[in-house]
Amino acid sequence: MAVSAWLIWRQHEPWRRSRAALTIWALQLAINSAWTPIFFGLHEIAAGLVIVALLFGAVLLTITRFWPVNRLAGALLLPYLGWVGFATYLNAGFWWLNP
Fold this sequence. Notes:
Number of domains: 1
Strand content: under 5%
Oligomer: single chain
Structural class: mainly alpha
Helix content: over 70%
């Protein structure tokens, strides 16, 4: 995640597109940091599912914004998207099995 953001940050042209992409990256990072204390700390499975679903969408949006600026930066986030997708699946399973 950090290398991907660094690749975008060092792009000089067009700076407006890079700045917008990094803003979305920061948003997904904030969503990511909210999931762990809600799911593991507060044991709020349903709220965790909502947050991790938002995180999946935010990571996907980040990739779509990074890709036109620097394809490597976008590609470096694909394993992260896979991991968030798996976490979403697990979180949904916990929610389904623990009503």
